[in-house]
Specification:
The complex is a heterodimer of chains A (152) and B (279).
Chain A: H1 4-9, H2 19-26, E1 29-34, E2 39-41, E3 49-55, E4 58-64, E5 67-75, E6 80-81, E7 95-98, E8 102-108, H3 109-118, H4 120-146
Antiparallel strand pairs in A: 1-8, 2-7, 3-6, 3-8, 4-5, 4-7
Chain B: E1 13-24, E2 27-34, E3 47-52, E4 56-61, E5 72-77, H1 81-87, E6 94-101, E7 114-120, H2 124-136, E8 144-150, H3 159-167, E9 171-177, E10 180-181, E11 187-188, E12 205-210, H4 213-225, E13 233-236, E14 252-253, E15 256-257, H5 258-261, E16 264-266, H6 267-274
Parallel strand pairs in B: 7-8, 7-12, 8-9, 9-11, 12-13
Antiparallel strand pairs in B: 1-2, 1-6, 2-5, 3-4, 3-6, 13-16, 14-15
Classes of the chains: A alpha+beta (152), B alpha/beta (279).
């Protein structure tokens, strides 16, 4: 049976992650499952976990009064769900709904934040992975907002 | 077969609309047959100047492979006076056609390599002949991946083709939309987000990209980041084309003319021009 650090080492997100840090991450990680329709995160809830998807698809969505929820993006195998754990006030900004059965690694964000605070090298390694992800999603969202395929 | 030389590139031939198929709320596909003679051969990626009599002329890419019929197929979006007049044509109507013009997609050059198609919105139309030709000789290519982005689930062009291609076991087809409700079960996100997850060898891939220019810039950036060399990334540029043979200068793009030197360019020939706002 694979150990958690072995599972994490296979994920592209943790590629080339120093072994000593991988052990620290594994100590905060656990396997989890969600049925289709269940929520991994709810807007406004404490961002005390984030997820690395191993199987299935998740919709990040936002609800507005008197309107159907709008899906902002969908995430799949190998992708991260949840970045709000990185910045205060550590609250989820969107709902994350399993569109189909989902298998994921849940990482205890409070535990990891503590370890990052205690070891800034670990914190920097995590930032080097999360910052490009956040920038990439920001760029993609800007393109979506631009509505580039619409009529001029 | 080499495309035939045009006798007088300014004189349109008369074509008849054989079929009209509504693709989207604002886009139709016209199947055209020559009123007399045969239509010239052409390569995927080339375009014709379509003349709506009494209204004007506009450049429209071929949207079906030359191997699939004796006429021309063009998908036209109602985006202005001329394209609107073309989009309202009915079977039996006639129009003027000059062409084919321009450069094509590097379909033969891609043999033996992975092929990555990145289409945004109506950009799938100029890419469809290239896809059809690649799939007609599937064994000559490595992995084939088709990435399509569009505005919403209601704006997916050529749904029937996408479904047919997706059913094949030797092609990866991914479709994503920018805006969707919870009733959409497909992907949501900008088309460039599909690139890092796609199966291709960046050292041995040819990418063909078509869509709004801003989308192509970001797609090119994502492809470069994935390791695809600029010389292997091909974009189909769009400018206001008039003469279509590089004389009038309407479509000047820096030192190049999109009608004559393009519309399909390898990125390494135009990368310095893409970010220049004035051109």
């Amino acid at each position: 049976m694979e150990t958690m650090d072995q599972i994490l080492a296979k994920q592209a997100f943790f590629a080339d992650f120093p072994a000593a840090f991988a052990d620290l991450i594994a100590g905060c990680a656990s396997n989890c499952h969600f049925k289709a329709g269940e929520y991994l995160l709810r807007e406004g809830d404490p961002a005390d976990r984030f997820f690395l998807l191993r199987e299935g698809k998740v919709a990040l969505e936002i609800a507005a009064p008197a309107r159907a929820p709008v899906v902002l993006t969908t995430l799949k195998e190998g992708q991260i769900v949840g970045v709000s754990w990185l910045t205060a006030p550590y609250r989820a900004e969107f709902d994350a709904r399993a569109m189909e059965p989902v298998r994921a690694i849940a990482i205890d964000a409070k535990c990891l934040r503590g370890k990052c605070e205690a070891d800034h090298h670990l914190g920097y390694e995590m930032m080097k992975r999360f910052l490009p992800l956040v920038v990439e999603r920001l760029h993609a969202t800007r393109m979506q907002i631009l509505d580039v395929y619409g009529q001029r | 077969m080499q495309p035939q030389a045009l006798e007088d590139p300014f004189v349109p031939d008369i074509y008849r609309v054989e079929k009209v198929r509504r693709e989207l709320a604002d886009a139709v596909t016209l199947e055209l047959e020559p009123q007399s003679g045969t239509r010239p051969d052409f390569r995927p990626g080339q375009f014709n100047m379509l003349y709506a009599f009494g209204v004007g002329e506009v450049a429209i890419s071929m949207s079906a492979s030359a191997r699939l019929g004796a006429g021309f197929v063009h998908t036209v979006r109602n985006a202005g006076a001329v394209s609107g007049a073309l989009a309202r044509l009915e079977p039996g109507a006639t129009l003027g056609v000059r062409g084919p013009f321009g450069t094509g997609w590097p379909v033969p050059e891609a043999e033996g390599r992975d092929v990555l198609i990145v289409a945004g919105g109506l950009g799938l139309a100029p890419l469809r002949p290239a896809i059809q030709d690649v799939l007609a000789h599937r064994e000559r290519y490595g992995r084939v991946t088709i990435l399509v982005g569009c505005r919403s689930p209601h704006d997916i062009l050529y749904q029937h083709d996408l479904e047919e291609w997706r059913q094949r076991l030797d092609v990866t087809v991914e479709v994503t939309v920018d805006h969707a409700g919870t009733d959409w079960h497909g992907d949501v996100g900008f088309v460039t987000t599909l690139i890092p997850r796609s199966p291709f060898d960046p050292d041995n891939a040819v990418a063909m990209v078509c869509g709004p220019e801003v989308m192509m810039r970001f797609a090119a950036s994502a492809l470069l980041k994935a390791g695809v060399p600029a010389s292997a990334i091909h974009l189909s540029m769009e400018r206001n084309m008039k003469c279509a043979i590089g004389l009038c200068g309407h479509c000047q793009f820096g030192p190049k003319f999109v009608c004559k030197d393009g519309p399909v360019f390898p990125l390494d020939r135009i990368s310095g021009l893409l970010a220049v706002q004035e051109i």
